[in-house]
């Protein structure tokens, strides 16, 4: 026995509709049974993703005359079709499938993307979108419940935005574990992640149209960039990051934070200003100040550290005052810039690496140096285990990352008798060691942060 037939929907020549999967809760659509395919007003149309599963991203101005309100959208491409408009002009358009919602009822429709800026309606509903349970009243309009553009001014709209595929660039010269994890995790979430060799980028610097080029072509518009700038290319790499910032691309770590964290003298000055606890540190350029330099850092044993050292290279433990003087003289003989730092004996060759993402510690591990080595870097044979950190250590790590404005940072600290002491803030931390030691998906936390930042912002009402 069959149930009663569904009550037909009544449509006029114009109706309010929603395209929830695209984050468009209210659109006025013209119903046109003379047109076969539906069309949505879209701009900045750009394809991305693998050729086997191509996607398209575009922006929509849902309210006519309101160019300040812009909704970014993305969808899988189902077809590319030649469409003939009412005036006889032919256009090749991308076709997507998306649910249409009217009065609580949803059904899938095909939509082509095109420029309808000269049209009164941002959406046209063609025959394919109108199933047999819809009755058309050509002389009426708004037979279904009317919606309101005010929904776009509500903060809850941003929270309800559907996930959309992003195009993300990883700025890296290395095909290492961390780079591969960034690609793997991003693609698992449906994003397109492209690895860009920073040194092969070049910049077109202009007032109106700054651009980044790569291997002879202008790079596309990325939703976000993840800088993995090596120490040897810090200056040029941060210039590329600045260029992306100029264009308006979201960067996980800003150029100024990367630059400051790489220069250890500058970094310690920033932490001093932000009142981040660290070992006593001293710096001087003149060889006449060697004795005072050692005294300022707390006397032997001392750490003598090159300003741009990485992975434990250029870091020397001087166990006696005489040894400290010899190391300092040797570094000065090489015209090397260095600082002198108090050695925290009670740390016993161990330090804590905290991974900070979005101002929060998402994972932490204890690193212990190889036998006979005071340096705990994993690259030098150190070992890592998960560790519970105190509230003070957690707050110190977050404050250190915040002092540099870094959205992602590895904060290294020692457990001194007086409390945590920050050694270094790393703007390109590795993921292999900390994910293996803690079992946590820290790269996933990074993508949570990226997705949060690139979602549409709440739009205030425009004053009349």
Overall helicity: 10-25%
Any idea what the radius of gyration is?
29 Å
Low-confidence stretches: 1-5
Q: What percentage of amino acids are in beta strands? A: 25-35%
Number of helices: 10
The CATH architecture of the domain at 9-159 can be given as Beta Barrel
Number of strands: 28
Q: Going across the major beta sheet, what is the strand order?
A: 2-3-11-4-10-9-8
Full CATH superfamily name of the domain at 9-159: Acid Proteases
User: What fold name stands as the CATH topology of the domain at 9-159?
Assistant: Cathepsin D, subunit A, domain 1
Separation, N- and C-terminal Cα atoms? 59 Å
Shape: elongated
Task: Provide structural commentary.
22% of the residues lie in helices and 33% in strands. By secondary structure, it is α+β, with helices and mostly antiparallel strands. It has a domain at 9-159: Acid Proteases (Cathepsin D, subunit A, domain 1, Beta Barrel). The chain has a 7-stranded mixed β-sheet, with no helix packed on it. α3 (234-247) runs antiparallel to α4 (255-262). The longest helix has 14 residues, at 234-247. The model is unreliable at 1-5 (pLDDT under 50).
In short:
Helices cover 22% and strands 33% of the residues.
Quickly list its features.
alpha+beta; 464 residues; 22% helix; Cathepsin D, subunit A, domain 1
